[in-house]
Task: structure prediction
Amino acid sequence: MLTSIFVGGLAIGCVYALIALGFSMIMRATSIIHFAQGEVMMIGSMSGLTAVWLAPFLPAPVVLLVGMTAGGLAAVAMELAAYRTLRRRGVPLMNIITATVGMSILCINGARLIWGSEPLRYPDLFGVEPVLLGGARVPPQLLWIAAAGLLLMAGLQLFLKHTRTGIAMQAVAQDPDAAQLMGVNLTRTMAATFGIAGMMAGAAGVMLGSLFFSFFEMGFITGLKAFVAATLGGLGSIVGAILGGLLFGLIETFSAVYVSSAYKDAVGMLLLILLLLFLPQGLVGLWRRGR
Result:
């Protein structure tokens, strides 16, 4: 029982962590809280499902790649069409954050026009036979989602530390002016940040859609929960987003089982309020302060 609950919490936590990574990456690079990140996830989920409709025998990794590509393109399009233009015009930061809310609403309504308002189910991408794990029967999709999520997060860490683009993204996040003086192209790096953040969200969308269903409003509450997860870990921290997402997924899953599934969303919002009151710097900030 505990094993299956833990694996389920880990899988959901990976979904939250991937979206939270987007929040943190964009926050570090631009100081923008990208409230349309949940809708980028929704676009990735819907696009992956559309690919399955067009080619029913696509393997799960290809469907995941389609969702990642769609999420990345959507995020870059938002940055190029709206946020960059507003920054160049010297619009206050709060107005740009407000624009992300508007972009979120635009995506929700656009998705409703394209895919309709009914929940849409993914086919069984990972099989249906339960896997025996520690004496518990665990659905295979939970194991695949947890494995894929952890692999993507590890790959992102390697990308940021060992590639020229990743190092440039970290330099811009720390000091944009100094990075530009050292020859970093800010325009290209900002677009890459949004693109990779969108790819992480698109992957999360395919995972969440295959676990439950795809829906034009699926990004709203999931995006809020991912924001709570990013805040839990320490908003703006890559490691914090991963830790916060995994921990939040476990907290939500165990509270749904041992408290009530009807109030699991309220648990997340209560956690956000408590974090803002007592631990605004998040887990990573608390760890750094204690060193």
Remarks:
- The chain has a mean pLDDT of 88.
- The longest helix spans residues 2-30.
